[in-house]
Structure formats: structure tokens, C-alpha cells
Amino acid sequence: MNEGTILLVEDNPDDVLLTLRALRKHNMVNEVVVARDGKEALDYLYGGESSAGRDTSTMPVLVLLDLKLPRVNGLEVLRHIRTHPQTKLLPVVVLTTSDEEQDLVDCYTVGCNSYVRKPVEFAEFVEAVRQLGLYWLVLNAPAPARGR
Residue 35: CB partners within 8 Å, gap ≥ 6? Predict the structure, then answer.
């Protein structure tokens, strides 16, 4: 299992709790850093004001990204990630309630690795997070760190 940090970018406190519970329920022991808006996520990745002093040479192994975020929306966060040499290969899974086809198209066009609609039912949500964790943290072979 890839034991690096997961960056969860989510402004809904209930969805944060559900995601954390789902990860722990399935014994995923990765540290999870929560960014509650897009600016906080970018600060974490690049050492901005809310994460001043963080060692930005160590990147998360996975970004779980909501789309509808305050300050900087998820699509803009994804654009920054894909255009910055240090983060362009980071696995980014868009985890959203949006069922708008244009959001799906935009996310894949900008470079998300996966687009997952958040299930409404708790059991389905837990199962979706389990499958995401299994794939991205266990089965997937990540890009080498030097390529980031």
C-alpha cells in the first residue's frame, strides 16, 4: 500500500467526516490532509500562506478534489496542478455531487485521472471510497517522484 499523504479538498464538513470514516473503516492508514477550499489546497501544494513552512518537496500520493469550492473552484485547482511541473503527474480524482456533463468534460479535458460522483447513500459512499482507496493506493503504479 502507498502510505503517503492524501489531500482531501472538500468544503462540506459532513463529506469530510464521511470520507475520513470510510478510509479508516477499510484500514487505509494514510495521513489525510483536509483543505476546505481551493486556495487552501493550492497553499498546501505550493507552500502558500496557510501552509507556510511545509516541505513542498513531498507531495501527496492522491488528491481527492471536490468541484464546487469557495475562493478557488476545483477546476481551477486542477488546472494549477496540471500546469505546475512539480504536480503535473499527481493522481487527481474529482469526487463531486455534480452530474453536469460539462463538468465531466471539463475535468477530463484539464486532466483529472478519474471523475466519481458521490453516492448519496452512506453505504454506497463508503464503498466508493473503499474502491478508490484500493485502486489508487494499492493497485495503481504511481509516476516516479522525479517525474513530478
Answer: 7, 8, 9, 10, 41, 43, 44
Return the residue matching grid coordinates 496540471: 82
Q: Is 92 helix (H, G, I), strand (E, B) or coil?
A: strand
Alpha helices (runs of H) in 1-148, residue ranges in sequence order:
13-25, 38-46, 74-83, 101-110, 122-133
Residues 94, 137: Cα–Cα separation, whole Å: 16
Which three-class secondary structure state does DSSP give residue 37?
A: coil
Report the alpha-carbon distance of residue 146 to residue 148 in Å, rounded: 5
Mean pLDDT of 10-17: 93
How do residues 23-51 score in pLDDT, each as one tens digit?
888 888 889 999 999 999 999 999 877 77
For residues 63-76, average pLDDT: 95
Please state the separation of Cα 7 from the chain's center in Å: 5
Looking at residue 112, its amino acid is C
Question: pTM of this prediction?
Answer: 0.91
Domains of the chain, CATH where assigned: 6-147 (3.40.50.2300)
pLDDT score recorded for residue 49: 78
